[in-house]
Design a protein that fits this description.
Shape: rod-shaped
Helix content: 55-70%
Number of strands: 0
Number of helices: 5
Oligomer: single chain
Strand content: under 5%
Number of domains: 3
Largest sheet: none
Structural class: mainly alpha
Radius of gyration: 34 Å
C-alpha cells in the first residue's frame, strides 16, 4: 500500500529529478522514495562509528581483566612473601650449605612446574572464584561459583586431593 504526499521542490531540483527519471526510464516517485529511504537509513559513517564503539568497549573489558589479573598476581606474590618471611626462621650458619642445595633443588622444581602450567595453558586465575575477588570470570576452576570443589577449602587452599605432586 502506498500513500500519497505532496512535495515542493525548487525548480532546478525538479528539473534534475525529471531528467534523471527520463534517462533511467523510471518513475519520479521511485527516485524520491529511494532518496528518502537512503536519507533515513544509517549511513556508512554511522555504521563505522558503531563498529568502532563496539571495538572500544571490547578493548575496555580486556584491559579491565588485565588490570584485575595483574592486581591478583601482585597481591598473591606480596602475601606469599610476607607469610614466608614471617613463618620461616633463619638457619644457623653451620646448616647453610645443605639448605642452599635444597633451595636450588626446590627452585628448579618450581621452575619446571611453572613451565608445565604455562605450556598447558593452566592459570592460577582460573582457580579463583568470581565472588571472592569480584571480577569478570564466571567461576572457579572446579566449575562451581563460590563453592568448594573437590579438595578445596573455603579460602581456596589445596588439600592433598589437588596438590601438584611435583611441587612437594
Amino acid at each position: 500500500m502506498r500513500l500519497r504526499t505532496n512535495v515542493y521542490f525548487p525548480p532546478e531540483v525538479l528539473r534534475q529529478l525529471i531528467d534523471l527519471a527520463d534517462r533511467r526510464k523510471i518513475s519520479r516517485s521511485s527516485i524520491v522514495e529511494a532518496a528518502v529511504t537512503s536519507f533515513l537509513s544509517p549511513d556508512a559513517a554511522d555504521r563505522a562509528e558503531a563498529a568502532l564503539s563496539r571495538r572500544l568497549d571490547r578493548l575496555s573489558r580486556q584491559i579491565q581483566r588485565l588490570e584485575r589479573d595483574t592486581a591478583i598476581g601482585t597481591e598473591t606474590l606480596g602475601l606469599f612473601i610476607r607469610l614466608w618471611m614471617t613463618a620461616t626462621p633463619s638457619l644457623p650458619k653451620e646448616m647453610n650449605g645443605g639448605a642452599d642445595a635444597k633451595a636450588r633443588e626446590r627452585f628448579q622444581t618450581f621452575v619446571e612446574t611453572l613451565a608445565d602450567r604455562l605450556n598447558k595453558g593452566a592459570s592460577f586465575l582460573q582457580d579463583i572464584p568470581v565472588d571472592v575477588v569480584g571480577g569478570v570470570r564466571s567461576g572457579s576452576g572446579t566449575g562451581e561459583i563460590g563453592g568448594q570443589g573437590p579438595g578445596e577449602h573455603r579460602l581456596g587452599r589445596s588439600t592433598p586431593n589437588n596438590v601438584d605432586k611435583r611441587a612437594e
